[in-house]
Amino acid sequence: MTRAQRIASKVFRFGIVPRAKQRAGRAYMDVRARRGGPAPEIRSASGDHNAVDDYWTGHLVNAAPFLTARQSERYLEWRFREYPLFREFSGLYGAHDGEAILDYGCGPGNDVTGFAIHTGARRIVGADVSASALALARHRLSLHGAGPDRVDLVRLTDDRTALPFADGEFDFVSSQGVLHHASDPRAILRELHRVLRPGGEGSIMVYNRDSVWFHLHVAWEVLIRDGRWPGQTADEAFHRTTDGEDCPIANCYRGEEFVALLEEAGFEARYAGGYLSQWELRAMQESWGFAITDERLAPEHREFLRGLRYDYGHRPMHGDLHAGIGGTYRIRRPG
Ligand SMILES: C[S@@+](CC[C@H](N)C(=O)[O-])C[C@H]1O[C@@H](n2cnc3c(N)ncnc32)[C@H](O)[C@@H]1O
């Protein structure tokens, strides 16, 4: 093991400060790159970078580079366990034999990697506004031997929504946890519709307002129990509770609201429901009983929480749909 690898592995294991993690990670990735393993190219679309791009370049979902392909694969398995029903609702990864897939907002490459190792896709494109996330994705793909013959990485800008792809270039589009962070999600949806071929399908996740996260975690745990941001409503505080307090944009949608946006962009859309986070399952056990009897909690939230039912797997449901934060939509471009 080289010195850079030793540092990177220690930092990764003991979870020291993010800046040190990133420095050690970069040193480790440089060593790998010098060895000349196959890695996809990162090309940049034109446009100026704004506060959204800068935030996501400095704030990574999982900052430490993986040291081995097995570790990277295990993380994907952990991610499905951490978010019950994510796999089922999103349909990831599917077969996709011979298809071209776009992962819009690929971050550090979770699903680009998943598509590369679990599907027969001919071409996989990961696009994101974050330079650091794309560098991690590139490194991770090289661990799996997924090179430029099959995978492309493209750096976008939040300000310029025109995608650098041809009409109908993709058979499948996936976008997990991205569009609620974008300045102009309507314009991005129009572009995703343009680059998907007629008859092509996709899977999109945006934060679900009809969720335990919104009505219990934000409205009661954060604002009332912890007394944070006095005077703010759950709608006002929500964006500070998901991806870091300073995250410039983090919206949440009701199912019918986002289906309307998808239809406006030209898609046929079906709302599958909100997959759960372990955080929400814990909040149901620890906080639900306090919240429903607390008169400081606005009636909208108390009624929502009182109306929840459990499914056979003890997962909370609102009406016929699961009440997790991961609002998932299956889409199709009519063809
Ligand atoms: C929570 S992460 C999700 C990453 C990845 N999809 C996953 O599931 O692991 C959100 C990602 O959206 C990206 N993002 C934010 N705004 C964007 C925009 N306007 N266009 C494309 N990507 C964007 C961020 O850089 C970040 O990588």
TrEMBL record:
Domain of life: Bacteria
GO MF annotation list: demethylmenaquinone methyltransferase activity; S-adenosylmethionine-dependent methyltransferase activity
SUPFAM superfamilies xref list: S-adenosyl-L-methionine-dependent methyltransferases
InterPro entries in alphabetical order: Methyltransf_11 (IPR013216), Methyltransf_Superfamily (IPR050508), SAM-dependent_MTases_sf (IPR029063)
EC number in record: 2.1.1.163
Catalytic EC class: transferase
Methyltransferase type domain ranges (all copies): 102-201
Gene Ontology annotations of biological process type: methylation
Keywords, ordered alphabetically: Methyltransferase, Transferase
Protein name: 2-methoxy-6-polyprenyl-1,4-benzoquinol methylase, mitochondrial
